[in-house]
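ligand=zinc ion
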Amino acid sequence: MLFVEFVLECRQVGTFTKNTEGVVLMAKTLMTVRRDGLRIITKRLSYTQQVMCSVTSLMGSASDPAELLGIAHYFEHMVFQGTKTRTREEIERDIRRYCISHNADTSFLRTRYYGECAKINFEKTLEVLLDIYCNPIFPEDRVENERGVIGTEISMRKNEEDILAFENFLVSLYGAKSLPGRGIIGTKETISTVNRNLLLDMHKTYYSPENSVIVVVGDVSHRDVVKNVNQFFPIGKPSAYRQRFDWPNDPDSPPAEPLVVDEKQGREYSRVYFACKIPSGSLRDRLVMNLLAKCLDRVIYDELRQKRGLVYTAGASDYYKRPLISTFYSCAQTEVHNFAQVRDILVDYVLNEKICESDFEIFRESKFVTSSIALETSREWNDAILSQIISGNSDLGFIDNYFEKISKVIEGITFDDLLKMRLELIREDRMSFSIVTNKD
Ligand SMILES: [Zn+2]
């Protein structure tokens, strides 16, 4: 609670947020665009020891040709396998040494490598991240090794009912050939031809300075970050911007396939998604939808699990990967013999069940608190800055006030806004099913 009060006492003064004693707590977001196009963005939070560094290429699965689907994800695995100056073991050792946590993830429009560290280790962390980003060598034996690893990852996902149903829910809304529908990981066939030369080509094309964004949030100065980046990410020649993006998200078009069913013998439990596309719209629209989803989530969970004991999990949520995906979904998972009953209740509750104003008040308050806490966290700031950049918004003023804006907008949302949005968007003719179940 103290944490929250501390934030609320801060106020925006000139270019800095200061506390009542005038101590600078949070500086404006700063961006340097190098002459080769590399973007270096920092935000200084002077009250935390924790620094979050991310290095991102605006290359994701969108860049994968259909016959090589999964290569962007394969690439992400491969940068950890050795650089010009570090072996795989040395990369692992240095990450262990300097980072509190680290990871990499491939999305549709970007691939990100990040490390969270203590302030004293930020230069070393940035150096390792930039080394794997700028200098990977893709040793041939390691390419083969990862083919086995990723092959297992593919098999694992195919046999996970929850993952399968989730992926099929995107297929049902956007179509199997769409960017969201075709997925990121590929198939064993499409990854079978990935080789060292293809990876080196991709590196040259997509890991260029124009296609790269570096974000560092914590108690470090912009000047130090730029100095470090310049040392480890050599200034290159400007080249063309490479991000490929030709799958528009049209929230008004009907679902591509209103019913996608995956049946297999021997399954003991079933999973259903009942979902629709929604406009990704304004920040306000997204917050209204988020609160509406939480209210529906509560009544669905209460009925299916707490009152009837039919499911382990059930609920509703909003899901965005802007600018590509914006959806509302409800889902439930149950034993096969209860499936039809659970599906019917889920549909009925999503379309017809009353939501409560008292739930709304509680969720609105907790959302307010969550966004106040996010304002304090290096990781949350790093995510927020990057996701604005990925969705094409480089207005640093908007980014700076992002969490405060959320709090302000939430205050103005009413229960009526939720009812109106539900009436408009959560309609039977907009909905689609993804079902994973047993085959008799
Ligand atoms: Zn993976």
